[in-house]
């Protein structure tokens, strides 16, 4: 493994920690000019996505109206109703984009395909660089925003559905991803400069909570007035390998003014008790006072 890639993997939480999980879910607020250009404005404005970690699959819900959901895989994409009934599907979806340009409209299955592979790629990076079928090469240092960013070129096998065969990630001194470049092959090889920021830590793994994608010029610089996609991400949660009902998520005060999202083991209920599923919960005043430092944390 390249020293730079090793530094990046450790900075994001480490491979051992990552490998404890099999899926990841996160809430999204999505904007940008791309969706209207493709005739699909609003379909993914506020949604949730769950992606496989390693194995390539993804699902968005809701997808447009009526709480529909998507099922993405490299060789098939489907749109289902809330009960899982298939409403529309597309086999060999990549082939359906032949001849497309940036302004070519998409069908709903094509939108589901793009959103599925894109979010799978984003949420699996940088660990995706270690996956079979991905080659990594270090490039010369890139200077931007007064910083010197290391760069890694990723070359993907044809078995992996993603933006383009060759992509580049940019890394700050802290090892965190700053930028991700690619060409959107299914939109006429449109060049993109994708910026990541405002990292949060979830179960020891670092994730960006903001993503902004701009059209890139031939010299690699972004065009600020042409933001194709914006993504705000919140409420990251993992699905662990093995029994999915063995853990629960908790927000824990670890220091005055500092909260961390953590995972804790579930206990089996004793005789005469039942376990209920919690969809949402609030924070009581004493918890808020503890975070503010009014009460000691043992």
Short description:
By secondary structure, this protein is mainly β. It has helices at residues 3-11, 15-18, 34-37, 108-124, 285-291, and strands at residues 21-31, 46-52, 58-61, 69-73, 76-80, 86-91, 134-144, 147-156, 166-171, 177-184, 190-202, 205-216, 222-240, 247-255, 258-265.
How would you characterize the overall build of this protein?
The structure is a single chain. By secondary structure, the chain is mostly beta strands. The chain folds into two domains: 3-240, Lipoprotein localisation LolA/LolB/LppX (outer membrane lipoprotein receptor (LolB), chain A, Clam), CATH 2.50.20.10; 247-291, no CATH class. Helices cover 14% and strands 45% of the residues. It has five helices and 15 strands. The protein has helices at 3-11, 15-18, 34-37, 108-124, 285-291, and strands at 21-31, 46-52, 58-61, 69-73, 76-80, 86-91, 134-144, 147-156, 166-171, 177-184, 190-202, 205-216, 222-240, 247-255, 258-265. Strand 4 (69-73) and strand 5 form a beta hairpin. The longest helix has 17 residues, at 108-124. It is globular. The mean pLDDT is 90.
**Spans of at least 5 consecutive residues with low confidence:** none
Helix percentage: 10-25%
Gap between N and C termini, in Å? Answer: 41 Å
Percentage beta strand: 35-45%
Order of neighbouring strands in the sheet with most strands: 3-2-1-13-12-11-10-9-8-7
What count of domains describes the coordinates?
2
**CATH-derived architecture of the largest domain:** Clam
Order of helices and strands: HHEHEEEEEHEEEEEEEEEH
Briefly, what CATH class of the largest domain?
Answer: Mainly Beta
Rounded radius of gyration (Å): 20 Å
Q: Please, how many helices?
A: 5
CATH-assigned homologous superfamily of the largest domain: Lipoprotein localisation LolA/LolB/LppX
Q: Give the beta-strand count.
A: 15
Shape: globular
Overall mean pLDDT: 90
* Main sheet attributes: strand count, strand direction, barrel closure: 10 strands, antiparallel
CATH third-level topology of the largest domain: outer membrane lipoprotein receptor (LolB), chain A
Q: What structural class do the secondary elements suggest?
A: mainly beta
